[in-house]
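Q: How would the structure tokens look for this protein?
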Amino acid sequence: MRESGVLKQIKEYCERVINDRVFIWRQNTQGTFIRAKNTYAFHGLPGVPDLVGMTYKGQFLGIEVKRTGAKGQQRPAQKEFEAKCKAFNGIYILTDDLDDFILQLKAVM
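A: Here is the predicted structure in token form.
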């Protein structure tokens, strides 16, 4: 399954099954093409996970979905964000499917 499909499954699970325990939303890091410079300008914080939110205890929750294998590698900015999130006692979940996400979330909540 593509990353977008897994993201949709996780978001629906959080909104329908555990909506009393987590509040999440899709966090897109947008780029705008600047024609005069023939380049993109990106908006938002580098490395922010695909889904962000909080638990019912007020704890930050970041969910990054990557495909299994070489094409599913985190970028350096994503690894830095994960490390900072964990250093500040946030929850950061790196997953490739819904079942794995559920297991990881249960382990930390």
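The beta strands are 22-26, 31-34, 39-42, 51-55, 60-65, 91-95.

Residues 85 and 92 are 7 Å apart (CA to CA).

Upvote if useful.
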